[in-house]
Amino acid sequence: MSRPFIIITLVVLAILEAPFNSYLKLLGAAPELVLLGVLYFSLNSPKEAGLACGLIGGVLKMALSGLNPVILIIYASIGFLAGLYKETLYKQLSSARMILAFAAVVYSNMIYGFLISSLGFPYYKMIFFICIPSAIYTAALAPLIFIALDSITPPREVEYREIIFKKRAYEGRRPQ
């Protein structure tokens, strides 16, 4: 995938998330659409592109929602880790997408919530009333967003390592 396409798609997701965040809330929890875009492009791009996608997503999230610049580092680490471990995941399974989205939202909210709690907001309230509902809502939307992004992205080349992994997994052997 080309970098301009990735940037344009992340900008569209950030623009959709910023004003419609109040309309998309369910019981006070809002989905993390930019984070889902970062995960999608990190899983479907080379390893180094995951870090770049995370940085771009962090800049957009910081610019449009007014969050602390630490969100840049959090999104970059999520993008890098998703790009690093993309060979060990079945990216096409909806359950894997949901688990990955849940873990990424919990990770980002827990680290960012630690900063908020240092300003006087109780950490346990942030975990139970912001982090967990947002992670569940984002995980529920993850397969739909991934399918939508699959439909608009151009076809990509399948890597040789991915073909071998799928072949060994299909045969029932554990990949080396």
Set down the secondary structure blueprint.
Blueprint: H1 3-24, H2 33-43, H3 47-65, H4 70-84, H5 94-117, H6 123-152, H7 160-171
Provide a descriptive summary of the structure in words.
The structure is a single chain. The protein has 176 residues and is an all-alpha fold. It has a single domain (3-87, 95-171), classed as Orthogonal Bundle (Arp2/3 complex 21 kDa subunit ARPC3). The protein has helices spanning 3-24, 33-43, 47-65, 70-84, 94-117, 123-152, 160-171. Helix 1 packs antiparallel against helix 2 (33-43).
Write a brief caption for the model:
By secondary structure, the chain is mostly helical.
Characteristic terms for this protein:
176 residues; Arp2/3 complex 21 kDa subunit ARPC3; single chain; mainly alpha
Describe the global form. Answer: globular
Largest sheet entry: none
* Second rung of CATH, namely the architecture: Orthogonal Bundle
- Overall average pLDDT: 83
CATH class placement: Mainly Alpha
Strand content: under 5%
